[in-house]
Specification:
The complex is a heterotrimer of chains A (about 100), B (about 200) and C (about 700).
Chain A (H helix, E strand, L loop, with lengths): L2 H31 L4 H23 L9 H31 L1
Helix pairs in contact in A: 1-2
Chain B lengths: L13 H34 L2 H4 L5 H4 L2 H26 L4 H31 L8 H34 L3 H33 L2
Helix pairs in contact in B: 1-6, 1-7, 4-5, 4-7, 5-6, 6-7
Chain C lengths: L2 H9 L8 H7 L3 H27 L2 H9 L4 H31 L9 H35 L8 H23 L24 H29 L12 H33 L12 H35 L6 H14 L15 H13 L1 H15 L8 H23 L2 H7 L3 H31 L5 H28 L14 H30 L41 H7 L13 E4 L4 H17 L3 H19 L5 E4 L1 H17 L23 H6 L1
Antiparallel strand pairs in C: 1-2
Helix pairs in contact in C: 2-3, 3-7, 5-6, 5-7, 5-18, 6-7, 6-8, 6-16, 7-8, 7-20, 8-9, 8-20, 9-10, 9-11, 10-13, 10-16, 11-13, 14-16, 14-17, 16-17, 17-18, 20-21
The chains are: A mainly alpha (about 100), B mainly alpha (about 200), C mainly alpha (about 700).
Chain lengths: ~100, ~200, ~700
C-alpha cells in the first residue's frame, strides 16, 4: 500500500470517468443533432448505455472477472436475469395487449 | 477483494473483516432496489405511447435536454469525486481529505437536485404534472424516485460527515462509507438508464 | 379556525359514523351486528391480553425479554405467535363465509359488501399475516441453528422486519374497529380499488398494511440470504447444509426479488389514490392491466416463497422420522433452485383471460407445467427416503402423510389450470379456489404445522402433547378434504367465486359439505389450542431439555432445549452432511472442549418497537387523512433510525467461564440421563437423549 498503488487506483477511476464521459456525450450529441433513423438510434443508445453500465461496474464498483469476485458477479448476473425476465416480460405482455386493443 | 465496491484492504484490520458481511448485505438490498427501478422503467415504456399520453404533452414537449445533460454530467462527476474520497479512505490519507471530497460530492449531489427540481417546477408550470396523463404519471413515478434516492444519499453524506467528526475513522464509520459509496455509484448507474430510456429515447421518438 | 376545522385537522376523515359499533347501534341488521360484534371482540381481546399480562406482572419481562430482544429465536417465536393469532381470525372468517354460502340459495345472512370484506380480509390475512409470519418465524428460529450460527447477520434489522410485519397485522385488525377493510379481495385490482369507485378507507387499509409488511419481508429476505452466505459454521459448506436451509436460501432470494413488484404496485395504487396519479385509472391514459401484471409478478413467486420452506421442513421431518439420510439430497437442492427460478417465469397464468394473444398464453402455460417436474422429483425423493426406513407415525409424520396425498392432488389440478384453454372455462369459479387452497393448506399449512410440532421441543424444552396433536392433525386433514374437494365439483358446475349467494339448487348439498369441512377445520384449530394448553400444563411430564427428542440429524439438535442466547458454546466444526447424526455415530457428539471463548452478542434495542409503533401510526394516519400524524410518524422513524447509527455500544460480551459452566452443566445432565429407543419417543421418559442406532449405511450392508 503506497503512493504508487494510490496513483494506479486513481488512474483507474479517471479512466472510468473518461469512458463514461465519452459514452454519455456521444448519445446526447447524436440525439441533439438528429439525423439517424429511429431503430438505428435506439440500438446505438442501448449499446452505449450497456457499455457505460459495464464501465461503471468495472471502474467504480470494482466488479471484474477475477476468481475472488465470482460470487458478486453471479449475484449481479442473477439479478439482471430476473430483471430481464420481469421487465421484458412486462413489456411483451403489455405490448401484446396494447396491440390487440 | 471480498465484496463489491472498493475494498479497504487488510491493513484496516477489524473494519476490513466486518465489511465483508455488511457490504454484501447492502449490495443485496441494492439488487432488490434495482428490481424496483427496473419495473418502473418497464411501466414507463408501456405508457410512453399515444394512449398513455392521453392527448397531453409528450416527451418532446416537456423534456429539457440541456438541463438533463448538465444533471448527467454533475452526477457522473460526483461518482468520480466519491471514488476519490473512497480512495483517500482506503489509503488513509486523513479525515480532512476524505471529508473534503465527500463535501464536493455532497455539493454536486445538491446541484443535481437543484437542476432536477427546476425541471420539475417547469413541467408543473406547463401543465405536465402527474395528474395530466398515465405517461406523465409513469415519468413522475420514476424520475423523482431516483431524486428521492439522491436526497437520501445527500442526507447520508451529512450524517457521515458528522460521524467522522464525532467518532473519527472508526471501523463502523469506514464500513458505512463503503456502503454509502456503493449507494452513490448505484444511483449513477440508474441514471444511465434514466437518461437513455426516459430522456434520450423519449425525445428522439 | 372553527371547531369543525379543528376536528378535521385532528382526526382527518375519522368520525363516529366510521365505527362499526356505532353503525350496529344505528341500524341493527345481522350484517352490521356481526361487524359490531367483531369490533367488540377485538377490543375485548386487547383488554383481556393487557389484563392478563398485568395479572402475570409480565410487562417488564415482555419488554426486556421479548419485544426489545434481538435474539433470532425470540423473534422467531414472536412471529409464530402473531401468525397463530391472525390465523384464528382468518379461520373464523372462513367459517362465516362457508356458512353464508351454505345458506346462499336463500340469500344468506350477510350483505354482499360484508361478504366481500370477509374474503378480502381472509385472503390478505392468510397470505400476509399467517403464512408469511409463520414461514419467517420458523426460518428465524431454525435456520441459524442449523448452519451453526450465533444469530442472524443483522439482528436489529431482523427485529425491524418483525416490527413492520406486526404493523401490517395491527392495521388489518384496526380495520375491524375503525372503519371497514377493503372489499377488493386480497389482490385489490384497480380500477375497483381506485379512488373513483372506492373513495372510503378500505383500499387504503389494504395498501398500507401490505406495503409496510412487504418492506419488512424484503428486509427479512436480505437477512436470511446474507446469514446463509456469511455466517455458516466452519466446515458447513453449502452442500453440507440441511435441506431446510437450501429452501430458506431460495425463499429469501424470492423475497428479495419478488417483493419489489408488490411494493411498486401498492405504492402506485397509493399514488393514484392520494396524489391524483393515473397509473391504473380508467381515464387519462391509465392502464389497470399494468397493475394485474405487477401484482402477479409478485403473487406467483409468493406462493413458492411460502411452499419452499414447507418442502424443506418435510425433507427434515421425513428423514428424521424414517431414521434415514435424505434420499437424493443433490436432486432436491437442484429441484429447489429450479422451482425458485421457474417461479419468476409463470406469473401470467394468473391472468390468462386478460386478452393477450394465445402465443403469450401458451408460453406461460408451458412454463407453468414445467414446475410440476422438479416438484415431482421432490415427492419421489421423499418417498424414497421413507422406503425401508424406520418410520414412526408421530404428529409431524401424520401431517406429512396428509401433505403427500392432498398436495399431489392440488399440484395436479395446477397442471390442469396451467392449460389456458381450461382456464378459460373455469376461471373465476370455485374450481380455482379449491385449487389454491389445495396447494396452500396441505402444502404450506401442513408443512409448517409439521415443523412446529417437530421443533417445538427445541424451542421450549418440552414436547407437544401427542394425543391432541393427532386429533388436530386428523381434523385438519379431513376438514380440509370436506371443505375444499367439493369446491372442485361446484366450480366445474360453474359456481363463480366470491359470490355471496347463488341460484342453482344443485350447488346446495356440496356447499353444505364444505360448511361441514369448515367446521372440522375450526375444531382442528380448537384442538391445536387445547393441545398447546395441555402441553404447557403438563410441561414437566413432557420435558425434553437435553435437546434431542427425535434422534435428530442436524445441528439444531446438538444444543440444549431451549438453546442459550448464543446457541453454541463453541462453534461446531462440521465434517459431514447431517453432521449431528454422523457425530453421534462416531462418538463426536456431546464432547467437552478446553477452548471456550468469550462470545459477543448484540444488545437489546427498542428500535424495532419504535419503528413498529411509528409505522402503525403512519398507516392509520394515511388511512384517515390525518396529515400531521403522518408527518410526525415519518419524522420519528427517520430520527430513530439516524439516532441508532450514533450508538456505538451495541454489543455485550458473555465471559468464557460462564459459557463453560452452563455448557458443562448440560453435558453432565446428558451423561447422567438414560437414552431412549425410538419406540418410546412419545412417552414421558423421553428426556431428549436418543439411543445410538447404527447408521443406515451399516444397516444396509448387513
Amino acid at each position: 500500500m503506497n503512493d504508487l498503488d494510490y496513483r494506479r487506483e486513481l488512474r483507474d477511476y479517471l479512466i472510468g470517468f473518461g469512458l463514461a464521459f465519452t459514452l454519455t456525450v456521444g448519445p446526447f450529441a447524436i440525439v441533439a443533432w438528429g439525423g439517424l433513423d429511429r431503430p438505428t438510434l435506439l440500438i446505438f443508445l442501448g449499446a452505449c448505455a450497456l457499455v457505460q453500465i459495464t464501465v461503471h461496474f468495472r471502474f467504480f464498483l470494482h466488479i471484474d472477472l477475477s476468481r475472488q469476485k465470482r460470487e458478486d458477479l453471479q449475484l449481479i448476473l442473477f439479478s439482471v436475469l430476473l430483471l430481464i425476465i420481469m421487465a421484458i416480460g412486462t413489456i411483451w405482455i403489455m405490448g401484446n395487449l396494447a396491440m390487440r386493443m | 477483494m471480498r465484496h463489491p465496491g472498493i475494498n479497504l484492504g487488510e491493513h484496516h484490520g477489524e473494519a476490513h473483516d466486518q465489511a465483508e458481511t455488511l457490504v454484501f448485505g447492502f449490495w443485496v438490498f441494492l439488487m432488490s432496489d434495482l428490481i424496483i427501478f427496473g419495473l418502473m422503467f418497464a411501466i414507463y415504456v408501456t405508457m410512453a405511447n399515444p394512449v398513455g399520453m392521453a392527448g397531453g404533452p409528450g416527451p418532446k414537449d416537456v423534456f429539457d435536454l440541456t438541463s438533463v445533460f448538465i444533471q448527467t454530467m454533475i452526477l457522473l462527476t460526483s461518482s468520480l469525486t466519491f471514488g476519490i474520497a473512497s480512495l483517500a479512505m482506503r489509503h488513509e490519507q486523513g479525515r480532512g481529505r476524505i471529508a473534503l471530497w465527500l463535501g464536493v460530492t455532497l455539493a454536486l449531489g445538491l446541484g443535481f437536485l437543484g437542476f432536477e427540481a427546476r425541471d420539475f417546477a417547469n413541467m408543473i408550470g406547463m401543465g405536465a404534472g402527474p395528474s395530466r396523463s398515465g405517461f406523465l404519471s409513469a415519468f413522475w413515478g420514476l424520475v423523482p424516485l431516483h431524486g428521492l434516492h439522491v436526497s437520501a444519499g445527500c442526507i447520508w453524506i451529512v450524517v457521515m460527515l458528522i460521524q467522522m467528526r464525532t467518532f473519527g475513522m472508526i471501523p463502523i464509520v469506514k464500513t458505512r462509507l463503503l456502503r454509502l459509496g456503493l449507494f452513490w455509484h448505484f444511483l449513477d448507474l440508474i441514471w444511465v438508464g434514466i437518461f437513455t430510456i426516459v430522456f434520450l429515447a423519449g425525445i428522439s421518438a | 379556525m372553527t371547531s369543525d376545522h379543528t376536528t378535521t385537522w385532528l382526526f382527518g376523515r375519522l368520525d363516529l359514523s366510521s365505527l362499526p359499533i356505532w353503525q350496529a347501534i344505528q341500524s341493527p341488521a345481522i350484517s352490521e351486528l356481526i361487524a359490531g360484534a367483531a369490533a367488540m371482540i377485538v377490543i375485548a381481546g386487547a383488554i383481556a391480553v393487557i389484563a392478563f399480562i398485568t395479572w402475570l406482572r409480565a410487562w417488564r419481562s415482555l419488554w426486556t425479554d421479548w419485544l426489545t430482544s434481538t435474539d433470532h429465536k425470540r423473534i422467531g417465536i414472536m412471529y409464530c405467535v402473531l401468525a397463530l393469532v391472525m390465523m384464528t381470525r382468518g379461520v373464523i372468517e372462513a367459517v362465516l363465509m362457508r356458512a353464508q354460502q351454505a345458506d346462499g340459495l336463500s340469500g344468506g345472512f350477510l350483505t354482499p359488501e360484508h361478504f366481500a370484506e370477509l374474503f378480502s380480509t381472509h385472503g390478505t390475512i392468510m397470505i400476509f399475516f399467517v403464512a408469511m409470519p409463520l414461514v419467517a418465524g420458523v426460518i428465524n428460529y431454525i435456520m441459524p441453528l442449523q448452519i451453526g450460527a450465533r444469530d442472524m447477520s443483522f439482528p436489529v434489522m431482523n427485529q425491524i422486519s418483525l416490527g413492520l410485519t406486526a404493523t401490517g397485522a395491527v392495521l388489518v385488525m384496526s380495520s375491524l374497529v375503525f372503519g371497514k377493510f377493503s372489499t377488493g379481495s386480497w389482490a385489490a385490482y384497480p380500477p375497483y380499488t381506485g379512488l373513483a369507485f372506492n373513495p372510503g378507507p378500505g383500499p387504503d387499509y389494504w395498501i398500507w398494511s401490505v406495503a409496510i409488511a412487504g418492506i419488512g419481508t424484503t428486509l427479512s429476505g436480505i437477512n436470511f440470504a446474507v446469514t446463509i452466505y456469511k455466517e455458516r459454521a466452519p466446515g458447513m459448506t453449502l452442500f453440507r447444509m440441511p435441506l431446510f436451509c437450501w429452501t430458506v436460501l431460495c425463499t429469501s432470494i424470492i423475497m428479495i426479488f419478488a417483493m419489489p413488484p408488490l411494493t411498486v404496485a401498492t405504492l402506485m395504487l397509493a399514488a393514484d389514490r392520494y396524489l391524483d396519479f393515473h397509473f391504473f385509472t380508467n381515464d387519462l391514459g391509465g392502464n389497470m392491466m399494468n397493475y394485474v401484471n405487477l401484482f402477479w409478478l409478485f403473487g406467483h413467486p409468493e406462493v413458492y416463497l411460502l411452499v419452499l420452506p414447507a418442502y424443506g421442513i418435510i425433507s427434515e421431518v421425513v428423514a428424521t422420522f424414517s431414521g434415514k439420510r435424505l434420499y437424493g439430497y443433490t436432486s432436491l437442492v437442484y429441484a429447489t433452485m429450479a422451482i425458485a427460478v421457474l417461479s419468476f417465469c409463470v406469473w401470467l397464468h394468473h391472468f390468462f383471460t386478460m386478452g393477450q394473444s394465445a402465443n403469450v398464453n401458451i408460453a406461460f402455460g408451458i412454463a407453468s407445467m414445467c414446475i410440476a417436474v422438479p416438484t415431482g422429483v421432490k415427492v419421489y425423493d421423499w418417498m424414497a427416503t421413507m422406503y425401508r426406513g424406520r418410520i414412526r407415525m408421530t404428529v409431524p409424520m401424520i401431517y406429512v402423510t396428509g401433505f403427500f396425498i392432498l398436495f399431489v392432488i392440488g399440484g395436479l389440478t395446477g397442471v390442469i389450470l396451467a392449460n389456458p384453454t381450461i382456464t378459460y372455462q373455469v376461471h373465476n369459479t370455485l374450481f380455482l379456489v379449491a385449487h389454491f387452497h389445495n396447494v396452500i393448506i396441505p402444502g404450506v399449512v401442513f408443512g409448517l404445522l409439521a415443523g412446529i410440532h417437530y421443533w417445538f421441543p427445541k424451542a421450549f424444552g418440552f414436547r407437544l402433547h401427542e394425543g391432541w396433536g393427532r386429533v388436530s392433525a386428523l381434523l385438519w386433514i379431513f376438514g380440509f378434504s370436506f371443505a375444499f374437494l367439493p369446491l372442485y365439483v361446484v366450480g366445474l358446475m360453474g359456481m363463480p367465486r366470491r359470490s355471496a349467494n347463488f341460484n342453482d339448487p344443485a350447488f346446495e348439498p356440496l356447499m353444505l359439505a364444505a360448511l361441514f369441512g369448515a367446521a372440522l377445520v375450526l375444531s382442528a384449530l380448537a384442538a391445536l389450542v387445547i393441545q398447546i394448553w395441555v402441553s404447557v400444563r403438563d410441561r414437566d411430564k413432557l420435558a425434553a431439555p437435553l435437546g434431542d427428542p427425535w434422534n435428530g440429524r442436524t445441528l439444531e439438535w446438538a444444543t440444549p432445549s431451549p438453546p442459550p442466547h448464543y446457541n453454541f458454546a463453541v462453534l461446531p466444526q462440521v465434517k459431514d452432511r447431517d453432521d449431528f447424526a454422523a457425530a453421534k455415530a462416531n462418538g463426536r457428539a456431546f464432547a467437552d472442549t478446553a477452548n471456550y471463548g468469550d462470545i459477543t452478542m448484540p444488545k437489546n434495542t427498542a428500535l424495532g418497537m419504535i419503528i413498529c409503533a411509528a409505522a402503525t401510526l403512519l398507516g392509520m394516519a394515511l388511512v384517515w387523512y390525518i396529515w400531521w400524524l403522518a408527518m410526525l410518524s415519518v419524522l420519528t422513524i427517520v430520527v430513530a433510525f439516524v439516532a441508532r447509527t450514533f450508538m456505538l455500544d451495541t454489543t455485550y460480551t458473555i465471559p468464557a467461564d460462564e459459557i463453560s459452566r452452563e455448557h458443562r452443566a448440560w453435558l453432565a445432565r446428558v451423561r447422567a440421563a438414560s437414552p431412549i429407543t425410538r419406540d418410546r419417543e412419545t412417552d414421558d421418559v423421553n428426556q431428549g437423549l436418543a439411543v445410538l442406532e447404527l447408521p443406515e449405511t451399516l444397516k444396509a450392508s448387513r
